[in-house]
Amino acid sequence: MADHATTLPERPAGLPHPAFPFQSRFVEIEAQRVHYIDEGAGPALLFVSAGQWSFIFRDVILRLRHQFRCLTLDFPGSGLSPDAVDRDQSVRANAWVLDGFIDALDLQDITMVVHDAGGPIGFLIATMRPERFRALVISNTFGWPLREYPSVRLKTKLADIPVLTLFGGKNDPLGWQRRFGLMFRNVTAVRIEDGHRFPFNDDPDRYAAAIGDWWAKKVAEAHRQF
After folding, report:
1. pTM of the model
2. Which residues of the chain register pLDDT less than 70?
């Protein structure tokens, strides 16, 4: 069960409400208290970026919450989620936190936005539970460089899912946007040419518009055809 709070003693000093104008919420996952935000209404749009905190998605959520139910969580030890002693920060351990979060909120028909280290975490859960996911936005992240995480999982489990690759053009030296374009059959590619590692902060207007336009044309329209 999730418990809700409008004010937090853990809120960082110097972070006024106008700078982070969201209701903070908490949910227990694997005996850990996890902070998350849940703003707006409509199809579920889940932002995943491990090692960061929900503040990084502030600007884009403000622009999309009129169209989507925007959610993101702070993985244990980041943001407003307290740390645990000897907490495992591996991809697999954080993937189980994401899995528990999806179950706790009973999220269905998810469009998941994966960014940075959130990519391998989100991909792992999406390949395990493809029935929960409707579409993917892949943003300045990477596939698995290790042999035990082959990209064939994406090609077999999620090959036909609508995908938007949305990268900052100045932070893709290894060409991951092109690589992801070869893994899926239904891909739209957008580059924020002046964007860096966090393109949603560099140009939140264009980033949000790219998601909204793509979703309306490629995801909602495809759903109506069935």
Report:
1. 0.89
2. 1-12, 85, 143-152, 155, 223-226
C-alpha–C-alpha distance, residues 105 and 222, integer Å: 26
| Domain at 25-224: CATH architecture | 3-Layer(aba) Sandwich (3.40)
Judge contact between 133 and 126, C-beta under 8 A.
yes
**Residue pair 75/84 in contact by the 8 Å Cβ criterion:** no
Amino acid at 146: L
For the chain, which residues make up each domain, given as ranges?
Answer: 25-224
* pLDDT in the model for residue 224: 60
Rg (CA), the chain: 17
Calculate helix-pair angle for 118-128, 91-104, nearest 10 degrees: 60
| Structural contact between residues 179 and 138, judged by C-beta atoms closer than 8 angstroms | no
The half-sphere exposure of 110 on its side-chain side, counting CA atoms within 13 A, is 27
At residue 87, the pLDDT reads 72
Contacts of 141 (CB under 8 A, 6+ apart): 114, 115, 116, 117, 118, 119, 120, 176
3-state DSSP assignment of residue 42: coil
Half-sphere exposure for 118 (CA within 13 Å, toward CB): 30
- What stretches of the chain adopt beta strand conformation (E)? 2-4, 25-29, 32-40, 44-48, 69-73, 110-116, 133-141, 163-168, 187-192
CB 124 within 8 A of CB 100: no
Q: How many residues does the chain have?
A: 226
